[in-house]
Amino acid sequence: MYLDAIIIGAGFSGLYQLYKCRDQLGLKTLVIEEGKEVGGTWYWNKYPGSRCDTESHIYCYTFSEEIYKNWKWKERYPKQKEILSYLKYVERKLSLRKDIIFNNKVISADYLDKKNLWRVKTDKKKVFYCKYLISAVGSLSAANIPNIKGIKSFKGEWYHSGRWPDKKISFKNQKVAQIGTGSSGIQIAPVVAKSAKSLTVFQRTPNYSVPARNRKLTKTFIKNTKESYKQIKNLLTKTPGGHAFKFSKKSIFDFNESKRLEILEKAWLNGGLSFRACFGDITKKLNANKIVSNYIKEKIINIVKDKEIAKKLTDFGHPFTSKRPTLNTDYFETFNKKNVRLIDLKENPIVNITKNGIKTKNEEFKFDKIIFATGYDALSGPILSLNLTGRKNIKLNKYWKNGPITYLGLMIPNFPNFFIISGPGSPSVLTNVPAQIQQHVEWISEFIRYLEKSNSLSVEPEAKEAENWVKKINTLAKKSLFMKAKNSWYKGDNIPGKPKTFIPYPAGLPQYREICNKVRKKMYKGFNISLK
Ligand code: N01
User: Fold this and answer.
1) Is residue 324 in contact with ligand 1, taking CB distance under 6 Å?
2) CA dist 217 → 73, 213, 214, 222 (Å)
């Protein structure tokens, strides 16, 4: 079957890109989705307690005033189920389903030089041909299931947070292990601990976490956000992370100690990702960051009653925000429960999984269920899993053997007419992702419009431009606090053998947007376009 465009993935990015390609560019378009429903990450991440930590009134599309105003969010942070309902609503509103095939995983895509077409194969033995191939597979969809010896022998059930099964899973009276304490693990533990007989949390690196302070949205708040649609939409293009909060222009050192504390207390009580913005230098300067890192540490120590456990939970070894900041609801309080244990993997590492549980250096545990909240082969993983072969039989896994090479995070040399939404080399995971996605979809769609008008056959970035882009990202990252974290998936540390290079674009969405706009104004400088 021949199509003008194929989009892989039916999450936030795939749905919007389908609408753009089909309804605004008039292209014959198909979305191929591995899951059985729309939703992308919000289809798969059905783990207990799953909820977004970006506020609901901005964790959504802003391209359509009607959609924005018609949808009513319930809470400050939307639950996974609510986001899924929202995406289904958008899909219905735009009549997208008829151009999506579900339960089909793309297993390979090959560029056919002579025909200037992509050949896309799925695990259901379907084959499609298209001119434009667009990845909407997301940044965090390739689950990292650690290769721990003995996993196959485990008699109980095990799950990964990002590939949570559809069936209902009960933890009532169960002995549960949880490996991993990132954003997912921090949400899972308090919920599982409520019903499990016991919960044992295996922690490799302790994580800073700020209270989420979730709450029901008031009618007044909902009304105000709808009335401020235009201002909110505009604000999301101006802030570094595409969030609705601005960073303070003041340094922490502009204030004496008591005033600093007053500001921090206020931000802590408000909760949320905006905590890091209460002083302008928290995320930029190590000395300012140290004060805030210590403040969070003190807060946790005051919550956790057992001093030994508190020490393990706060032995961070990296600055606050150098890894993805997390929000929590009663995560640290959970360790005051009698049925919850914390195992510090630094002093007591896992040796292997047994048929009955987990064996560590010092102890053997029995478990009924194991939860892997161990994160993802982030950003490059999902693209590599597509098994792309570009021009002249160039394999993407070889071309990226030293790390992902893209120009603007949007295209790859030697892989013509292949676009990436919110992947490596773009701000992606460092932002409120729907805001970044919309910028990408709109930029890509304008580019395709231009290519179609110009009678183009194919387009790809110049290799030199892509090399410079990767260098630029790594130069920017070196100046940031991100490089101070060990085991950071931002730089591939979490996956054995993954090249160590900084992957997302770290200088913020407005700067990135400006660069993309400049390239467009200069008639797509840096891209080689071949005409029919
Ligand atoms: O994954 P993570 P996540 N043995 O990589 C540990 C988004 N998200 O799914 O820090 C033992 O952050 C690992 O330890 P270490 C969001 O962007 C958003 O939690 O590498 N432990 C870490 O503790 C987020 O950042 C939301 O030393 C192992 C944990 O597992 C991203 O997804 C919710 C291990 C993984 O943490 C990923 O978050 C959920 C091993 N072999 C996710 N391998 C919201 O919006 C890894 N770990 C709320």
Assistant:
1) yes
2) 8, 12, 9, 7
pTM: 0.97
Check pocket membership of 429 for ligand 1, CB cut-off 6 A: yes
Q: How many domains does the chain have?
A: 2
- Cβ of 181 closer than 6 Å to ligand 1, yes or no, is yes
pLDDT digits (tens, 9 = 90+) for 5-53: 999 999 999 999 999 999 999 999 999 999 999 999 999 999 999 999 9
| Tokens found for residue 449 | 């419009």
Task: Please tell me if the CB atom of residue 163 comes closer than 6 angstroms to any atom of ligand 1.
Answer: no
User: Quick check: is 315 in a domain?
Assistant: no
Q: Examine the domain organization and report whether 489 and 351 are in the same domain.
A: no
Closest approach atom of ligand 1 to CA 180: 30
Q: Ligand 1: does its nearest atom lie under 6 Å from the Cβ of 487? A: yes
From 374, 428, 429, 493, give the residue whose CB has the most ligand 1 atoms within 8 Å, as the site to mutate. 374
CATH number at residue 466: 3.50.50.60
**Integer Cα distance of 136 and 10 in angstroms:** 7
The helix-helix angle for 433-453 and 509-521 (nearest 10°) equals 0
